[in-house]
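Lab manual, section 2.4: Encoding a predicted structure.

Procedure: take the sequence of the chain (127 residues), apply the prediction step described in section 2.3, and record the output as structure tokens. A sample record is shown.
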Amino acid sequence: QVQLVESGGGLVQAGGTLNVSCVVSLRARASSYAVGWFRQAPGKEYEFVAAISRNGRNKLYAESVKGRATISRDNSKSTVYLQMSSLKPEDTAIYYCAADERNILVVVSSREAYDYWGQGTQVTVSS
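Recorded output:
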């Protein structure tokens, strides 16, 4: 089984920067999976944030975060990162990383395309 663990969440002031990480299980081999970031605000459905292909060359961002979010990965460390600046209160959510083992080069935004999910890390943006 693939295991993913998110970290880096916490309380951030509006206008600040979010930095979260996702560590993929060594047995899963991070380079064998595209990884996406999703978030879920209280009482709302999952929302796609960003995704990155296996080799890190193909990236996809949601329109709501384009221009202020950056997704990257370091397969030698089995880690995928998400950085997002100019945080707003509406960015408050639990942030999840997920792994897609089916797509080799492309990345997708559909939640159904992802096979494994982490437990999430809470990000709270104060006004």
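Check your result against the sample. The chain has no helices and eleven strands.
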